[in-house]
Amino acid sequence: MSTEAEPNTNTGADRRKRMDLDPDTVERDLVKLVLTIVELLRQLMERQAVRRFDTGELTEDQEERIGLTLMLLEDRMAELRGRYGLRPEDLNLDLGPLGPLLPRE
Length: 105
Prior knowledge:
Layout: H1 12-19, H2 26-55, H3 60-83
Helix pairs in contact: 2-3
């Protein structure tokens, strides 16, 4: 067993490569992250609403209100994606061996 410390090969240039931050796209990247989280929550709410519709635990008025709310949210998401030049697939993060964050619809 060696007690010698291995030299640190992480130079500042190596760290910059991994960070890959571009000041010109910070706003768009932040919007992309926020919209990804909102899209994940929207899809989860939509699935929960469908389950509740299927079990019959909602009144007709509740079903209508939930459906309208989900449609409006989807419209606003499309509007924001368009404003920042994002496509729906841009919001789907690749989690490596776990696969994509969002299911493909």
